[in-house]
Input
Amino acid sequence: MTSVVLLDHGSGGRASRRLIREVFMRHLSNPVLDTMDDAAHLELSGSLAMSTDSFTVDPPEFPGGDIGSLAVHGTVNDVAMLGARPRYLSCAFILEEGLPLDLLERIVRSMGQAARAAGVWVVTGDTKVVPRGAADKVFITTTGIGEILADPAPAGSRAAAGDAVLLSGTVGDHGLTILSRRAGLALDGPLASDSAPLHVMAASLATEVGDIHVLRDPTRGGLATTLNEIAEQSGVACEIREEAIPVRSCVASGCAVLGLDPLYLANEGKLLCILPEAKAAGALAVMRRSPYGAEAAVIGRILAPGDKAGAGRVILITRPGGRRLLGMLEGEQLPRIC
Output
């Protein structure tokens, strides 16, 4: 093996097989993937959830994770937001010629560790190598599939007036971490990505609490954009309280310096849970029981459309008691964030 990725590694020949065997199979091996067929033979029954996502984060390694673990967590979480138990993943790699093989192996090792910790198998994949300059180091596309546990399944169109809006923890950690590392900024506090698998928390909400109307992870566009999407899908209004939204002090101070709003920064280890207000206390207890939900909070409520809040609108009650309309993110605040 050479010390860098070569175009030959994407040829489909001997070098490709060697790369797959010595890097990918070494860290992702399991009985399904080991057959090395063109498609994975899976045994599943009942209703299924499936999601796919691409990851181009820059830099590919950052405090709290890397593009490998992020790809697993992001896709596991997307499947889990349908009230499903993730089971299998596929992954496709686009590698730039000249990528150091030790960097690639660290990424794949991290991906394998994240998959094992989440209880999922990477059962099929693909690798392509492009010339220098045609990509930036490494891009990963993952697809996940799992069994739906909730009946009916949570959906963005199911939020209803009288529902409580719960958030599993602090916002803005991932977005500000990536920005600070990319720009070489020395901000105050121990900034780290919140990248984490949320499927166990989501499954517990679905099976122990029940009647979950919406589950959603507020990734690109942040909390504000995700709530706008839900309000629009459901034809309702949403009202949230600024003082109830958890934000780490280092994120708040960093955003103040840079002129950013943490409500629009990406998160990779947080979920929104919307359900009838009568079940909010039980859901909050389940979320706080998870290692990824210790700072969970009720942050607002769903309203029927009216004069003060039309359908699809999100209203922020500010700390002084004022009301501010939170729109969707306009443009790309931070490119290559996940």
